[in-house]
Amino acid sequence: MIFVANFFFNVIAPFYLQNARGLMPNEAGYLLMLFPIVQVVVSPISGSLQNRFAPELLTTVGLVILSITQIGYMTATLSTPLWLFGTWVGVMGFGNGVFQSPNNTIVMSTVSQRDLGVAGGMNALARNLGMVVGISASTTVLFASMSQAYGKPTTTYIAGRPDIFLAGMHTTLTVAFFICALATLINLWRYLHRRVQAK
Hints:
Blueprint: H1 2-20, H2 25-32, H3 34-49, H4 55-74, H5 82-109, H6 116-150, H7 162-198
Helix pairs in contact: 1-2, 1-6, 1-7, 3-5, 4-5, 4-7, 6-7
């Protein structure tokens, strides 16, 4: 589910930064690079914290952070400072970094030693499916919302009408927020359920 929500952002962000805000492709790229840079730093730290905290707790914290960043994106306008948008991108990378390592541990710990290869393959398949679903669902929601705001069908960014795009962007990222929130609730239930079983 998180890969679905992440790819909502991956689809929307270039339109917002380049078309709506007028940034050059390289400038938008530098800003969006904050996500993987922060994630690369945080992921190993999150992995090491599994020795002190339950993986389910760490994944829940990561999902809460990701949900909060979606709220930030939902409120973005043409006057939002780029440093603030960049901060959200970095925080999103932080949340994703906190989430991924312990989540992989949880997945791999549910199978026997001989099935680790199969579990790894299924985990990769789930990620790729999330990417595909995220791209297709986000573009569907985006252009359906833009068409409704524009009053007629559209399947592209409308030059000179950033307000139409922002309407579609806010709707699309609201959907992404609810996906993150649902994933957070499911993960929190999983964490509490395991704590009850451990007693």
